[in-house]
Write the structure tokens for this entry.
Amino acid sequence: MRALQSAATGMMAQELNVQVISNNIANLRTTGYKRQQAHFQDLLYQQYRRAGTQTSEQQNRVPAELALGSGVKTVATPRAMGQGNLTMTEKTYDVAIRGEGLFKIRMPDGRFAYSRDGSFDLDNTGQIVTRDGYVVEPGLIVPQNSTGVTISNTGQVQATLSGQTTPTIVGQIQLSRFINKTGLESIGDNLFIETAASGQAIDANPGTDGAGTLQQSYLEEANVNAVTEISALIAAQRAYEMNSKVVTAADQMLSSTSQMFRG
């Protein structure tokens, strides 16, 4: 029976939907996390009577089709890349992005990854790195005799050296933008890599060419709304239950049919 297969696809789709929602809720406190959404499409239809088919010599035509669908499929789980709330941390090397752009991170294998997580620190050489020790481009080194470091809204890093009152410019943090940022591929650890769908990175100083500005001693929270996710979870659960009811109903109908044959 076609209803069994259609309902089964619906149950599988809602199971995946619940998995996506659960991952969003799990990352409710993950810095810079961008929530995912499951998108669905209906499957192929079997046409029994096409709309517009001629039904008589007087060219009468069928006003509506007679077709049966075969269920649903999941086509994408894109990320909503909207801005998350900024939270003060009072840590010198924590940096949040207000607006468009991602930090450019140099991976150990030489590739570049991109992130909204600005929880940075210094390694043993004074270089600004991520929590995993990956270098934040363009590889800025803070002098060891620095008594204070400031990062401006436009990404300029200045260090006040011991015995001096005038800050020294250490370097410039840049941001990377993408034509299609939802086309970025997530590789975990709050990192994305570019793909053919995202297009190539467009590097710019913060506050220029459409890039956002920076906020020192702040971090961006996940853009996950707990109430929205719980509501979506309840809706997905109810949709799963309704599809399971269809399976039960189809099974009862088949059982009745088989009993008729036995009778």
About this structure: The helical segments are 2-26, 226-262. The longest strand covers residues 146-151. The first helix runs from residue 2 to 26.
